[in-house]
Design brief:
Elements: E1 2-7, H1 14-29, E2 34-39, H2 44-51, E3 55-58, H3 63-67, H4 70-73, H5 80-88, H6 93-109, E4 113-117, H7 119-128, E5 135-139, H8 147-156, E6 162-165, H9 168-178, E7 184-186, H10 205-208, E8 219-224, H11 233-242, E9 249-254, H12 268-277, E10 284-288, H13 293-298, E11 302-304, H14 315-322, E12 326-330, E13 346-348, H15 353-365, H16 367-384, H17 388-402
Parallel strand pairs: 1-2, 1-4, 2-3, 4-5, 5-6, 6-7, 8-9, 8-11, 9-10, 11-12, 12-13
Helix pairs in contact: 1-17, 6-7, 7-8, 11-15, 14-16
Bound molecules: alpha-D-glucopyranose.
Alpha-D-glucopyranose binds near residues 13 and 312.
């Protein structure tokens, strides 16, 4: 069996991490299979896939496609821009030339199955794929608010053999937006539970953030996320402003700007200014990018997930639980399928800074609760979110669509 994976991004976000876990899991169970990655840019994804034994092909996007981002895809119906986009981006000579190059690359690889990760590749893969090769869309995000993209996906769905979704919640969204004619399966993400584990290297978050060392009994609470607007950095800062300043607590914002597309993310400078206006600048540190999120999480007592919109899955949630850390989760969308509120994590309403502050306060004051959630969280991940499950679910799916 030969599988070609197509990724629109070469940097490491959640869906790229999952792609690497899929490649690893398949290599372990089916060492004879050939795995290929076609990606729009060189970078960490291509390097790591190669190290795992996949062949990699870099096919750079033309500018018009590279720049097409979440914000422009959120255009609502009826606006002039919608038609403009529909008629311009995927129908430009540059886009057609790209589809031809992709088709040629696929013909050379001769895959038995094409697995696409990310909306741009779902569409480009549908346009470029050889007629007889089945296409699997692995959908990681909601379509509902992306009217333009949903319209295009609907047009392209006849070329898709099966859809994999990362949560039932995303699955419902797919049915609502592009219909239910295509076989669809929820495959919850899996992670490497030996990397995301309670024991191992830790980081000196204070020095990374340029802060003086915190006092010994300080409780450390951190948000580990990309800088997309909806990841809730502002809610986290607002929550900090609501927490009793006497509580020995230090907060960290861990991560950096990632996306290529404009207007889709907050900047550290903006967040620092916001922290200052809220009067919490002395309570929060910004570490910037960390190469090992597991080491960062192990350095925290409480890991916060604060997405202001329903989270399709929320890899960081299972990573935190796997590291044996108490997690506070924005409980909506796919994230709700991962946790049991009060048992293996605490939930709060998306965007509700008061509730988030209350959860952090409760955990900061109660080491036993933290330990109980941590133990239960680790057990949940071992049982449900170990990446070895990925191949067990995907291999039969690939075999089915090929038959
Ligand atoms: C996307 C989703 C995120 C999920 C990740 C991996 O980035 O927004 O919720 O964890 O894909 O499936």
């Amino acid at each position: 069996m030969r599988i070609a994976f197509l990724s629109p991004s070469g940097r490491m976000g959640g869906s790229e991490a999952v792609l690497l876990d899929i490649i690893t899991s398949i290599r372990e169970t089916e060492p004879g299979w050939k795995l290929d990655l076609i990606v729009s840019e060189s970078g960490p994804l291509a390097a790591r896939a190669k190290a795992l034994g996949a062949s990699t092909t870099i096919l750079p996007f033309p500018d018009s496609i590279a720049r097409l981002g979440d914000s422009s895809l959120n255009t609502s119906p009826g606006s002039g821009r919608l038609n403009l986009l529909r008629h311009s981006i995927f129908a430009t000579p540059a886009a057609s030339a790209y589809v031809s190059r992709l088709r040629k690359a696929l013909r050379e690889l001769q895959p038995d199955v094409i697995h696409t990760n990310g909306f741009k590749m779902h569409l480009l893969g549908a346009l470029a794929k050889p007629r007889t090769v089945p296409l699997v869309w692995h959908i990681h995000d909601y379509l509902q608010s992306r009217v333009f993209m949903a319209g295009l996906m609907k047009l392209a769905r006849a070329r898709c053999a099966a859809i994999v979704v990362n949560s039932d919640s995303v699955g419902q969204d797919v049915v609502a937006t592009i219909g239910n004619g295509i076989p669809q399966q929820t495959i919850h993400n899996g992670i490497d539970t030996s990397v995301f584990s309670p024991e191992g290297e830790r980081l000196d978050l204070d020095s990374l953030a340029g802060l003086a060392p915190a006092k010994p009994d300080t409780i450390r609470v951190g948000l580990v996320a990309t800088f997309a607007h909806w990841k809730g950095h502002e809610v986290f800062l607002k929550a900090l402003a609501l927490i009793d300043p006497e509580l020995p607590l230090r907060a960290y914002i861990i991560g950096d700007e990632l996306y290529q597309t404009e207007g889709s993310q907050v900047s550290i400078a903006e967040l620092k200014a916001r922290a200052q206006r809220l009067g919490v600048e002395n309570r929060v540190g910004f570490t910037g990018f960390v190469a090992e999120p597991a080491a960062a999480m192990r350095s925290l007592d409480i890991v916060v997930h604060a997405s202001t919109q329903p989270e399709p899955f929320g890899l960081v949630i299972v990573e935190a639980m796997a590291c044996g850390r108490a997690a506070v989760v924005s409980a909506a969308g796919g994230a709700r399928e991962l946790i049991e509120d009060g048992v293996n994590a605490l939930g709060h309403e998306p965007g509700n800074a008061e509730q988030l502050a209350a959860c952090i306060t409760r955990l900061a004051k109660d080491p036993e609760l933290r330990a109980r959630l941590a133990r239960a969280g680790r057990a949940t991940v071992a049982q449900r979110f170990d990446r070895r499950r990925l191949a067990r679910e995907l291999v039969p799916l690939y075999e089915r669509v090929r038959a």
